[in-house]
Amino acid sequence: MPQPKKKAYQVIVDQIREYFLNGELQPGEKLPTERELASRFNVSRTSVREALRKLEIKGIIEIKQGSGSFIKTPEYHSLGEELSSTIIKTEKKLIYEMLELRQALEVECAFLASRRATSEDLERIGKALEMMDRVKNDVELGIQADLSFHINIVLASHNSIFLQLFQTLSEHMQDTIRVTRRQRLKDPERTQETIDEHKEIFLAIAAGDANQAKQLMEKHITQIRRELTESLLSHIGEQHD
């Protein structure tokens, strides 16, 4: 069955979000005028105004009377939520592939860290874990603490190639963490379970139990992949309601 044709305003909404993801529009940047957008997309100015209202409601832009429309800056959480939704739709294949790579990389790093971690390594991992607990209700700070936890485990593996690879891919890692953490924060019980999963991994590494650390890290990332799938299916369901 052919897909229904998108309404003109929805085409504009989708394209502006795509421009943002591609870096063509930056936070705080002013959008073209209604007349320019109408000409660019070959639609009426009424469709442009409807699209701008939708983007404003979603928290992506801010309309300033007499000044124009501007992309909101990252401190607006609604923008981050919208981008997470867009990431799921437009980059889900990349995120799944990233999780496959993380499973291969981080499981081995957890194994090596349990054998090679110094007291300084363990202190850094422990501090990242403490930070995760303190900021567990703040999505963006939680992402950074979560990323720090995993980076410090890679550092503790004392494998320079693993570290270089991990650092190169850190931006994509943040995408996977952002998507899954937003899903988990909807349920306070899952938020605490996230902390507990990381704590178990840390304790296994600190105890030098290589096999346990490896198994727990594999279980953790497998769970992330499962939740990402559930999140995607839920999002698709909402789109069809």
Main beta sheet: strand number and arrangement? 2 strands, antiparallel
Q: Name the overall outline.
A: elongated
Give me the CATH fold name of the largest domain: Four Helix Bundle (Hemerythrin (Met), subunit A)
| Corresponding CATH architecture of the largest domain | Up-down Bundle
Domain HTH gntR-type: 6-74
Organism: Lysinibacillus agricola
Keywords: DNA-binding, Transcription, Transcription regulation
InterPro entries: GntR_C, TF_FadR/GntR_C, Tscrpt_reg_HTH_GntR, WH-like_DNA-bd_sf, WH_DNA-bd_sf
Structure characterization notes:
With 241 residues, this protein is mainly alpha-helical. Helix content is 76%, strand content 3%. The chain has ten helices and two strands; from the N terminus they run αααββααααααα. Strands 1-2 form a two-stranded antiparallel ribbon. Helix 8 packs across helix 10.
